[in-house]
């Protein structure tokens, strides 16, 4: 494999946190409120992940995301369990790809419960597809410095005599 | 012989009163619409169908955007979970390779007898292994299951 002993890989204990053990239908059903509730953590993690392009450097942010998600689902379980179960069940069984458009009635009930109990409004249509600006304290990674080759051919001095080409242009039909 | 074959011959003649006149006159099919009406009808029906298609198209696009929005909202959580599991598996793979090549003198993990694959990268750079390397120490059945999904997605 390409991973040598020099590559730092985190220990298993560093990576073990309680994971969100939920089904796809449940996640899709809760997606809008979850994304709104954990927006800060999600944006921080995704910015880190895209900028650094290395899973090892964003483990801390990823743990925050998972912790936030767990917290969200604990709150939902406490406040709106039956409404949420009804909605997730509808999402699960109404279509093959967890489409949201067949479950507007149950969605309305769930949204109302979330708004009343957790004061969490459903984000507007297409909210998470919009581009967003995220302000972070993490320093921006430096771009890769340009390679310098010590044995490269030195360039001509600025004052070098630049005579016209002896046999004209190679592209004489285009430039002359 | 000639007497035996004698039959009454009758000349083939027109029926009495003569033949009926030959109906050579063209009888066109009954036309319900004129050409212009057909063109107008075609354009009208097409325009109506296009309008309905447009309504349906807008609805489908809206549903797609909503689904994409939902998936993008849960993507960070899924990615965080995936990253952790991936790094765990990379460590397991490296340990498995060290264990497997323990008795080979001169073997260094991740290299070919000390020769690195990517010589110009910094030593700590994480190069994601290709699919076959990632599954090299796993059960072939697991490899097959994953490859089946991978090749179809």
UniProtKB/TrEMBL annotation, chain A:
Localisation: Mitochondrion inner membrane
InterPro entries assigned: NDUFA8 (IPR016680)
Domain of life from the UniProt record: Eukaryota
Biased composition (Basic and acidic residues): 132-149
Region listing for Disordered, in residue ranges: 132-163
Coiled coil: none
Keywords: Disulfide bond, Electron transport, Membrane, Mitochondrion, Mitochondrion inner membrane, Repeat, Respiratory chain, Transport
Function: Accessory subunit of the mitochondrial membrane respiratory chain NADH dehydrogenase (Complex I), that is believed not to be involved in catalysis. Complex I functions in the transfer of electrons from NADH to the respiratory chain. The immediate electron acceptor for the enzyme is believed to be ubiquinone.
Predominant location category: mitochondrion
Annotated family: Belongs to the complex I NDUFA8 subunit family.
Protein name (record): NADH dehydrogenase [ubiquinone] 1 alpha subcomplex subunit 8
From TrEMBL, chain B:
InterPro entries found in the cross-reference section: GRIM-19
Domain of life: Eukaryota
Keywords: Electron transport, Membrane, Mitochondrion, Mitochondrion inner membrane, Respiratory chain, Transmembrane, Transmembrane helix, Transport
Tagged with keyword Transmembrane helix: yes
Membrane-spanning ranges: 33-53
Membrane topology: Single-pass membrane protein
Localization annotation: Mitochondrion inner membrane
Cellular component GO terms, alphabetical: mitochondrial inner membrane; respiratory chain complex I
Any single Pfam family the record assigns to this protein: GRIM-19
The protein's role, per its UniProt record: Accessory subunit of the mitochondrial membrane respiratory chain NADH dehydrogenase (Complex I), that is believed not to be involved in catalysis. Complex I functions in the transfer of electrons from NADH to the respiratory chain. The immediate electron acceptor for the enzyme is believed to be ubiquinone. Involved in the interferon/all-trans-retinoic acid (IFN/RA) induced cell death. This apoptotic activity is inhibited by interaction with viral IRF1. Prevents the transactivation of STAT3 target genes. Complex I functions in the transfer of electrons from NADH to the respiratory chain. Accessory subunit of the mitochondrial membrane respiratory chain NADH dehydrogenase (Complex I), that is believed not to be involved in catalysis.
Subunit structure comment from the entry: Complex I is composed of 45 different subunits. Interacts with CARD15, but not with CARD4. Interacts with STAT3, but not with STAT1, STAT2 and STAT5A. Interacts with OLFM4.
Family: Belongs to the complex I NDUFA13 subunit family.
UniProt-recorded name of the protein: NADH dehydrogenase [ubiquinone] 1 alpha subcomplex subunit 13
């Amino acid at each position: 494999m390409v991973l040598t002993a020099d590559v730092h890989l985190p220990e298993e204990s560093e990576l073990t946190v309680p994971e969100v053990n939920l089904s796809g239908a449940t996640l899709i059903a809760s997606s809008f409120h979850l994304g709104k509730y954990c927006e800060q953590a999600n944006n921080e993690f995704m910015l880190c992940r895209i900028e650094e392009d290395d899973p090892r450097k964003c483990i801390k942010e990823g743990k925050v995301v998972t912790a936030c998600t767990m917290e969200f689902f604990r709150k939902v379980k406490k406040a709106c369990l039956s409404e949420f179960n009804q909605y997730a069940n509808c999402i699960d069984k109404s279509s093959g790809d967890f489409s949201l458009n067949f479950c507007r009635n149950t969605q309305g009930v769930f949204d109302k419960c979330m708004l009343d109990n957790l004061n969490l409004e459903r984000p507007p249509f297409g909210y998470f597809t919009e581009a967003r600006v995220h302000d972070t304290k993490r320093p921006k990674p430096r771009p890769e410095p340009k390679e310098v080759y010590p044995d490269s051919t030195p360039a001509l001095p600025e004052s070098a005599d630049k005579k016209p080409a002896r046999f004209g242009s190679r592209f004489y039909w285009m430039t002359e | 012989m000639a007497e035996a074959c004698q039959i009454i011959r009758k000349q083939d003649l027109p029926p009495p009163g003569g033949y009926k006149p030959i109906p050579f006159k063209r009888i066109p099919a009954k036309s319900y619409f004129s050409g212009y009406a057909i063109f107008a009808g075609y354009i009208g029906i097409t325009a109506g169908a296009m309008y309905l298609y447009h309504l349906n198209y807008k609805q489908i696009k809206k549903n797609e955007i909503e689904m994409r929005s939902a998936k993008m909202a849960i993507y960070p959580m899924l990615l965080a979970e995936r990253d952790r599991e991936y790094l765990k598996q990379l460590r397991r793979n490296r340990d498995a390779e060290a264990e497997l090549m323990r008795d080979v003198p001169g073997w260094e993990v991740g290299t070919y007898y000390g020769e690195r694959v990517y010589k110009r990268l910094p030593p700590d750079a994480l190069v994601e292994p290709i699919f076959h390397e990632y599954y090299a120490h796993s059960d072939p059945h697991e490899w097959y299951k994953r490859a089946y999904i991978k090749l179809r997605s």
